[in-house]
Amino acid sequence: MLTVRVAGFLIINPRAGDERPSADELRDEAERRGVTTHVLQEGEDVAELARSAPEGPLGMAGGDGSLAPVAEVAIERGVPLVAIPFGTRNHFARDLGLDRDDPLGALESFAGQERRIDLGRANGRLFLNNVSLGVYARLVHRREHHRRRRAVLARLRALALLAQQPGALGLRIDGVPVSARVVLVANNAYKVDLFSLGERERLDEGLLHVYSAEGLWPGKWEERTGARVEIDSRAGWLPAAIDGEPERLDAPIEFTVEPQALRVLVPKR
User: Fold this and answer.
1) Bridge partner residues of 81 (DSSP)
2) What's residue 249's pLDDT?
3) Which residues, 6 or more positions from 213, have their beta carbon under 8 angstroms from its beta carbon?
4) What is the structure's pLDDT at 163?
5) What is the pTM of this model?
6) Rg for the chain (alpha carbons), in Å?
7) CB 83 within 8 A of CB 34
8) Among candidate residues 163, 174, 145, the one with its CA nearest the CA of residue 87
9) Among candidate residues 247, 234, 266, the one with its CA nearest the CA of residue 185
10) What are the residues whose beta carbons fall under 8 Å from the beta carbon of 208, sequence distance 6 or more?
């Protein structure tokens, strides 16, 4: 009896981005390479789809917010994750070294080489990139959504958002009061300025980096590092964005890092 080898399983979110190639083109190219695909339908659960996949690497074609549920299942099943940039931001794919404007080329990862990278958790919930708290959840991601627009216009938008929410968050970071309106907890270190996220040079440092900015018009970041960080709020909760997805997190929030807990595949160099 002839056994057909499955190179992997790819879930495609057709609503993640609005640029070419289309979901159909991505599906056709993946299947040409021997990858089984599933185009996500309205109301389907990404994690359940991943759990029902055949043996082999698990891939997700979507934005940053689509990846965490599939990464969690990949860890459960002991298989590698394949990230295909197919959304608006695709920071994770960029930091893996992929061309985030070339999802078809990223399919080479299914036959690529394996790396082990860190992952973060916020109250147990997995994140690959970062968790932003307060106004920063809106500030950075709005600018990134318009990353092809002029930088001056994007900076003015960010300043306007800060002006709309002048109050500090009322935080304590590891028990120390912090007068900040802008906080970012990152899985490994970012190159940052106040209005945008740069790249991460490493994904296996094994540390969280906490960036906070104080004042009505913040001009610089204060940075802390550690394998575990607790952030509390006098309100008992905080507005957040987890890998760009809006959430409300109950405080205190325990942030932890799991060094090299996630296997990923990238194209061979």
Assistant:
1) 58, 264
2) 93
3) 180, 181, 182, 183, 194, 219, 220, 221, 222
4) 47
5) 0.85
6) 19
7) no
8) 145
9) 247
10) 120, 185, 186, 187, 225, 226, 227, 228, 229, 255, 256, 257
Residues linked to residue 256 through DSSP beta bridges, in sequence order: 121, 228
DSSP β-bridge partners for residue 250: 237
From 71-75, 154-158, 243-247, the region with the lowest mean pLDDT: 154-158
Q: Please check whether residue 136 is in contact with residue 182, taking contact to mean a CB–CB distance below 8 angstroms.
A: yes
Three-state helix/strand/coil letters over the chain: CCCCCCCCEEEECCCCCCCCCCHHHHHHHHHHCCCEEEECCCCCCHHHHHHCCCCCCEEEEECHHHHHHHHHHHHHHCCCEEEEECCCCCHHHHHCCCCCCCHHHHHHHHHCEEEEEEEEEECCEEECCEEEEECHHHHHHHHHHCCCCCHHHHHHHHHHHHHHCCCCCCEEECCEEECCCEEEEEECCCCEECCEECCCCCCCCCCEEEEEECCCCCCCCEEEEECEEEEEECCCEEEEEECCEEEEEECCEEEEEEEEEEEEEECCC
Q: In the numeric block, which tokens belong to residue 105?
A: 């080329």
Q: Look at residue 1 in the predicted model and tell me its pLDDT.
A: 38
pLDDT for residue 27: 97
Indicate the range of 104-108, 116-120, 199-203, 235-239 predicted with least confidence.
235-239
pLDDT at 17: 61
Nearest to 35 by CA among 112, 91, 136: 112
And the tokens for 174?
Answer: 């590891």
Distance CA 24, CA 42 (A): 16
